[in-house]
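Entry type: protein chain
Record version: 2
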Amino acid sequence: MTEVSEMREALGRGKLTEQAYNYIRDGILRGELPAGSVLAETEIAEALGNSRTPVRHALGLLLQEGLVEVGPRRQLIVRGFTPEHRTELLVLREALEDVAVRRACEVMAMEDIDYLRLLLMRQRRAANEGREDDFIELDEQFHLKIAEGARLPILVRFLGQLRGFVRVMRLGTVRHPRHLVQVLAEHSAIVDALERRDVNAATAALVQHLHKSDYVLDEQEVEVGRRGR
């Protein structure tokens, strides 16, 4: 086999692994593969029409990422999250996103701030149309874009991993429409502070957002949201 052929084969394997990774991860984040689900290589490979090798590699990546864990029978299963994990995630996100916001106040370009406002417009449209899944996707883009605009690529990867945990943790939660409006207002406050380069206001708005909306959901509101659907 020539060097070019080997490179092409390696690229092909990489694409198949990426395909398997995205398939499994999306299934976990959307709740199609709930916590405790056994992730059988053969079944996933058949669903994708691939061999087991890229699936095995993809599961290894997800194991490193933390969305997958080894079950009691040594098989790989979708990880569950406890209240203690919820507390830890809040502490980590607050610390890491504080770094991103402070740096963004110093170096974020105006076109990146304009893009944050575009994301807010898209979020508002999704909220008005009751597209909660799209709203959450845009929420993730919003937070990651701040880290990108802060020119902290390693931090972007860390936050992307944490956001995956948050998505799984939120599965089954139904928000009342007024909660989505509240999130938009909190996001707007962050963007306004970033545009003014006001570090204190930006970090205060972030902390309020994380503690008031992103993690702390009033149980009565959740029930009202469920009944309203």
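Comment: The two ends are 59 Å apart (CA to CA).
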